[in-house]
Design a protein that fits this description.
69% of the residues lie in helices and 3% in strands. It is built from eight helices and two strands, in the order αααβααααβα. The protein has helices spanning 12-32, 36-51, 56-78, 96-111, 120-136, 140-157, 161-183, 200-220; strands spanning 82-84, 187-189. The relative contact order is 0.15.
Length: 225
Amino acid sequence: MDSIASERPRTVATGWLIPAVQLSTTLLILALNTTSALTLLAFVAVWALTFRHWSLQESVCFLAVCALFSVMDILAVRQRLFTFSRADIGGLPLWEYFMWGFYVLHMLRALRGPAPMPRRRLAVLLAILFALPFATVTDSSALLITSGSALALALFFFHQAQDIRYAAYAVLVGAAVEYTGVWSGQWAYAGEPTGGVALWFITMWGGIGLFTRRLLLPLVVRPSG
């Protein structure tokens, strides 16, 4: 996939084929549940081949997202919302420190679309409100309700077609990731939920998709309008 800042026209390959292969291969590596080091090396190889060129903005975005979500993951593990089968550093496997940067960049490259005109203060405020339950709530049912309420509020303000598209695609990616990870034994959720995956994954991934468009897309491409 070309950098999102590239001016090249999209083809079937760069539009959907390469993103589909990239995500499928990443899920396959995840499902193999091999050692952390080998998993990370395999991820890096696949991402290098499929992302190819990176803009400076994308590189900064990737690193910032990795740092932020690593902290969020560590907090969630300490609250025992879920646990990893291989806890290398801070309760996380080595490869997990890079996964959220991949997910976000994958969404940006796959979906692209025009960047919205920034309403940054509102978006940041809503993002903080959305993130708070994941850092403070330990009960799965309460987390589903609180995060769902925060996401509903965010969608009240941000509900353009592209907002819904990003949120829906993120949920689809999240379902594939969560069930692959749980069913392959990479991680497990507290309370043994039906199917192995806590339902709050829907609100979590939906919110991540929405705020990827509202906060991150304008940082890597020029807003339209």
